[in-house]
């Protein structure tokens, strides 16, 4: 069983920055690909960014060039650096872990609120 705890959310003005962290425990962190998703009320959860076990990254078009995902396997933590934030980035952000080996297992964090507003 893997536990994921997100921190770093909050209120920020448009154009500002935040860094989200997701600390994992309960298994070998490097055995997992990690992703960030976000969700606003009434909408489906959408993928934001992902990082593989060997640190290859991918981004949704809406955040490309503004957000950066990274991982520190020594700290069992994945990060999402968010720059030039826009009001449409307002959402609850969730961390997701997917085991790359069999058996396939996946886990969600509890989410952290990000609000971009002046």
Short overview:
The chain is mostly beta strands and 118 residues long. It has no helices and eleven strands.
What this model shows, in words?
By secondary structure, this protein is mainly β. Helix content is about 0%, strand content about 55%. The protein has strands at about 5, 10, 20-25, 30-40, 45-50, 55-60, 65-70, 75-80, 90-100, 105-110, 110-115. Strands 2, 4, 5, 6, 9, 10 and 11 form a 7-stranded mixed beta sheet that branches. β5 (about 45-50) and β6 form a beta hairpin. The N and C termini lie far apart (about 40 Å). About 30% of the residues are buried. The mean pLDDT is about 95.
Main β-sheet: number of strands, strand sense, barrel status? 7 strands, mixed
Calculate the mean pLDDT score and round it: 96
Number of E-type strands: 11
Query: What is the gyration radius calculated from CA atoms?
Result: 14 Å
Q: Supply the helix-strand structural class.
A: mainly beta
Our count of helices gives 0
| Quaternary structure classification | single chain
Share of helix, binned: under 10%
> Span between N and C termini?
40 Å
SSE arrangement, N to C: EEEEEEEEEEE
List the SSEs and their pairings.
Blueprint: E1 3-7, E2 10-12, E3 18-25, E4 32-39, E5 46-51, E6 57-59, E7 67-72, E8 77-82, E9 91-99, E10 106-108, E11 112-116
Parallel strand pairs: 2-11
Antiparallel strand pairs: 1-3, 3-8, 4-5, 4-9, 5-6, 7-8, 9-10, 9-11
């Amino acid at each position: 069983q893997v536990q994921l705890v997100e921190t770093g959310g909050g209120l920020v003005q448009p154009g500002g920055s935040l860094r989200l962290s997701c600390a994992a425990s309960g298994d070998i962190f490097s055995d997992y690909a990690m992703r960030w998703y976000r969700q606003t009320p009434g909408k489906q959860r959408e993928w934001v960014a992902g990082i593989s076990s060997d640190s290859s990254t991918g981004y949704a078009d809406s955040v490309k060039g503004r957000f950066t995902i990274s991982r520190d396997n020594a700290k069992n933590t994945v990060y999402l650096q968010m720059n030039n934030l826009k009001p449409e980035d307002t959402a609850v952000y969730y961390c997701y872990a997917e085991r790359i080996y069999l058996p396939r297992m996946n886990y969600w964090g509890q989410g952290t609120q990000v609000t971009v507003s002046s």
